[in-house]
Amino acid sequence: MASVPSLAATVHQRLAHALSAAVPEAAGADPMLRRSDRADFQANGMLALAKRLKGNPRELAARVTEALPANEEIADIEVSGPGFLNITVTDEAVVRTLAARAADERLGVPYAEHPGTTVIDYSQPNVAKEMHVGHLRSTVIGDALVQILEHQGEKVVRRHHIGDWGTQFGMLIQYLIEHPHELDHSSDAAGATGEGEAAMARLNRLYKASRVLFDSDAEFKTRARDRVAQLQGGDEETLRLWHKIVDESKIYFQGVYRLLDVEIRDEDTLGESAYNDDLHQVVKELEESGVAVRSEGALCVFFDDVKGPDGNPTPLIVQKSDGGFGYAATDLAAIRDRIGTLHADTLLYVVDARQALHFRMVFETARRAGWLPDGAARQLPFGTVLGKDGKPFKTRAGETIRLVDLLDEAVERAAAVVREKSAGLGLTDEEIRERSTQVGIGAVKYADLSNSLTRDYVFDLDRMVSLNGDTSVYLQYAYARIQSILRRAGGDAKPAAHPEIALAPAERALGLHLDEFADTLAQTAEAYEPHKLAAYLYQLASLYTTFYDQCPVLKAEGGPDQVENRLFLCDLTARTLHQGMALLGIRTPERL
Ligand code: ARG
């Protein structure tokens, strides 16, 4: 494993040295190197520096040029405009750097210098309820961030803070006690679609039946309320039935995760209930330290800048006046556990933007209590999934749309695309199904991840499975096309690079972009922004398409070495696409 500095990093360093040699008082200044359309790179740091030193930027730039020792990377450097430096690198340097990347299993991507421990709170559906598009976002974004951070060498602890506690369980459990066969599997309709779906159907039935009784029968309502107290007090029979409901839900969740192609482990699933035993301690410490105060019987934390529409302060309620604990209490207990016991440096919460106020208040409370270092916790709020009408995605009847239905539809649409594209290839039904799943699920994930997290986006399957434009299918086709070229080239040996061969413009553009992979990953991880990686990969596929159109590979005019050098570029592009897509949780089928 050898990390390979990008050409941008090497050139940057050469310029920085030349700068401090030419102008000693500028030592440490940033030459501000960027990729550019004019040349390969442009450095515009001379402008700010000249201002600071009260000099002439063009003259300063010229001095830097002169101070630059002869080197292997820079083919040409010239002063332009008000004092920019335009830099062109040699073809040879491009290919040599790429060859070093290709020789490394990690494509030359370094590990972070100071890795720490990050807890990511993501994919937290609610027990006895259907998963919806909000849970899709949390799952897909969280999974990508886990992969991206782990790839950088960060220790990542996954936490699925599922909604498995609360007053509705009193109603469900009481109903089960009075109707002991309600969750029995034998009563399933034959032909139910998959065990996960069957489990959800049973839970839905239980939910509806108990709700009806709860709303119509005052005595049942009282019994259900008492049942909550027994649940929180740890009554054995109550807990047994609670477990039954939770397990049934987990069967359903796993069915959705399997379809979504994400791995969610039971040992990482610590729902709200997991913190039940800590809640009294949380309350005690908050009350004793004065962080929280009793107000009308409830234990509250107040904030100067959080007020309701009436101008009165809106508190965070840690304990209700009836003694019950809510969502805020379990989140506070979880913070104590994650910082105090897991010794995490960073806590991330991949949760809907509509919960921003909740997290702001919870973090501030934990900070005041001394449980959370300043700035250690961060919500990564995500926007809403919209229907084509631009409103939050609902069925015509105004109900939330079931995630499984959406995913099934995505796979179905993808099947149409796959069938059309592979007509005449004689694929079996099984092969078509497998590819359609990879294409359809990839399309949904990519559409989600290619938007910046906070943006709302429209769930438009027609667009998502389109072969043209910024879609995963486009990227998957680029990958599959390269694999087909490599197969046609024959031979199992990896194609070698030939740095002595001059590059066509499309090859240089592709090569320089390939060289930016490691830097892109570092930026993506640093900002927790998967869409940066998605944008990089889309550009990679686009540059590859241009290369493919302009530069014949197997029939290159320059002879066998040029053929091999182009195959080398193809191979590295494929490996980069594959690695990048894998970090986003998206498959790259070998054939499409
Ligand atoms: N279960 C919640 C929901 O579906 C999300 C939980 C988010 N995580 C947390 N630590 N509060 O809205």
UniProtKB/TrEMBL annotation:
Domain of life: Bacteria
Domain Arginyl tRNA synthetase N-terminal residues, every copy: 9-89
Domain DALR anticodon binding: 475-592
Stretch forming the signal peptide: none
InterPro entries linked: aa-tRNA-synth_I_CS, Arg-tRNA-ligase, Arg-tRNA-synth_N, Arg-tRNA-synth_N_sf, ArgRS_core, DALR_anticod-bd, Rossmann-like_a/b/a_fold, tRNAsynth_Ia_anticodon-bd
Record localization: Cytoplasm
GO molecular-function terms, A-Z: arginine-tRNA ligase activity; ATP binding
Catalytic activity field: tRNA(Arg) + L-arginine + ATP = L-arginyl-tRNA(Arg) + AMP + diphosphate
EC code(s) of this entry: 6.1.1.19
GO cellular component, one term: cytoplasm
Record-level GO BP terms: arginyl-tRNA aminoacylation
Protein name (database record): Arginine--tRNA ligase
Species annotation: Streptomyces armeniacus
Taxonomic placement: Bacteria, Bacillati, Actinomycetota, Actinomycetes, Kitasatosporales
Gene designation per UniProt: argS
